[in-house]
User: Which sequence fits this backbone?
C-alpha cells in the first residue's frame, strides 16, 4: 500500500528527499522498503535486529506508533509516516 514517509533534514540528506513514497502493510514494512532503497538510512531508523530505536519516534498520521503496536502498526493507503529523531543539546 503506498504511503508517504517524511524525513527530517538530517536524514533527508541520505535520501536526497524530504518525503518518499513507500509501500507496506505495516510500519515495519515501510521502514524495510525505504531501507532497501536507501541503505544509508537503515542504521538510523532501526537497530541491528530490525526494531525501532527508543530515541527515534515514528508518527503514523500524527499518532506515536509506540501506542499502536510499534512496527506492527497497520498502514493504509495514503497514510503518512513521520520520523522524528531525538535531539540532544544543552
Assistant:
Amino acid at each position: 500500500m503506498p504511503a508517504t514517509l517524511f524525513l527530517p533534514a538530517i536524514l533527508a540528506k541520505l535520501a536526497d528527499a524530504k518525503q518518499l513514497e513507500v509501500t507496506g502493510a505495516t510500519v515495519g514494512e515501510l521502514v524495510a522498503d525505504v531501507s532497501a532503497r536507501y541503505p544509508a538510512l537503515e542504521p538510523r531508523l532501526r537497530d541491528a535486529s530490525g526494531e525501532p530505536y527508543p530515541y527515534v519516534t515514528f508518527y503514523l498520521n500524527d499518532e506515536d506508533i509506540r501506542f499502536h503496536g510499534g512496527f506492527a502498526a497497520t498502514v493504509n493507503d495514503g497514510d503518512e509516516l513521520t520520523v522524528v529523531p531525538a535531539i540532544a543539546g544543552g
User: Anything to note?
Assistant: The chain has one domain: 2-85.
